[in-house]
Design goal:
alpha+beta; Alpha-Beta Plaits; 2 domains; four-stranded antiparallel β-sheet; 4 strands; 7% strand
């Protein structure tokens, strides 16, 4: 009895697998037939979806350019601490170590008095009046300085507060070593940069969402038009008892084909476009070559573009059949 039951279950499983395989083959074949039979509509759908995926891919490049530009601006912002000429280098080194230990600090650069004097003389090498006045002083009037870069623009205020603490600005003998801190002079510029960075991120996200929604609607309506041309065929399939999944299958597969073809077309278009724009972005923005970015991140861009096309095509086809043809 158990043997017969086991054999029956095996036959049922075999039949089910065979049935599913045959059904899948028919769905795929029907999807291919629909794609080539409706050549003009398929071409229009591919073109529309290519534009959509091009917009999606362009957002990555725009985000890379924006991030590189903001990083370049942030690298030009820092806090400069100017020390008194009487400050000992040992005390300055101790303060530098304390600053380096702060989690907000990205890097520090110490400039000695001699280095400050050499830079001043190099900067004014053609100004003999200034050099002559410097020589008449009979010594080095410049103090050492420390340039501090934070990891984020919003963290400069905390670093400035740390420096203002008297316990960190006194020498071992208890005398002050800091002459001035230029944070408060640059505070307005740093605050503007912080606000601009946050606003740019929010604006980029909003633009991305708007473009994606608009693209989905365009693709959805284009695929709906393609499905509308097969409304009589769908009605016949319903009359003979075809299941909803069997009816939807070819259209969903057709939408997947739209997405795959559009994804490859988009990637091909991006190659010469980024090659042409590469040198221009590097000369204009300074620290990013959009073609090099495309090549170095090709794997990630390829997967995102391709899967976006597949999901967009399949989802749009599924919704179009369900909602507008009442399947």
């Amino acid at each position: 009895m158990r043997g017969e039951l086991s054999a029956m279950i095996t036959r049922v499983n075999t039949f089910y697998k065979t049935f599913m395989w045959i059904t899948t083959k028919r769905i795929v074949k029907s999807g291919f037939v629909n794609f080539w039979r409706n050549g003009f509509v398929s071409l229009a759908s591919v073109l529309v979806m290519t534009v959509t995926l091009f917009v999606v891919g362009s957002l990555f490049f725009l985000n890379a350019i924006l991030s590189a530009s903001l990083e370049q601006i942030e690298n030009k912002v820092d806090i400069n601490v100017y020390f008194l000429t009487s400050a000992q280098e040992e005390d300055i080194v101790l303060l530098k170590r304390a600053i380096d230990a702060l989690p907000e600090v990205a890097s520090t650069q110490f400039t000695t008095r001699d280095e400050a004097l050499a830079r001043f003389e190099e900067r004014h090498k053609n100004d003999q009046l200034t050099l002559q006045a410097l020589q008449e002083l009979g010594g080095n009037p410049l103090g050492a300085s420390l340039s501090i870069k934070a990891k984020e623009p919003s963290q400069y205020e905390g670093i400035a507060t740390f420096l203002e603490d008297s316990g960190n600005t006194l020498s071992q003998s208890g005398t002050p070593i800091i002459d001035k801190i230029n944070y408060f002079r640059n505070k307005a510029a740093i605050d503007r940069l912080t606000n601009f960075t946050e606003s740019a991120s929010q604006f980029g996200l909003a633009i991305t969402l708007v473009l994606v929604v608009a693209s989905v609607l365009i693709v959805f309506n284009t695929i709906r038009l393609a499905i509308y041309t097969a409304r009589e065929e769908i009605a016949v399939m319903r009359l003979v008892g075809a299941s909803n999944a069997y009816i939807r299958g070819p259209f969903v597969f057709e939408g997947i084909m739209y997405g795959i073809i559009s994804g490859f077309v988009t990637l091909i278009v991006f190659y010469p476009l980024t090659l042409w724009l590469g040198s221009k972005t590097e000369s204009f923005f300074g620290n990013i070559n959009i073609f090099s970015y495309y090549l170095s991140n090709f794997g990630q861009i390829f997967l995102i573009i391709l899967f976006s096309g597949i999901i967009l095509g399949a989802l749009s086809s599924f919704l179009a059949v369900k909602k507008y043809l009442a399947v």
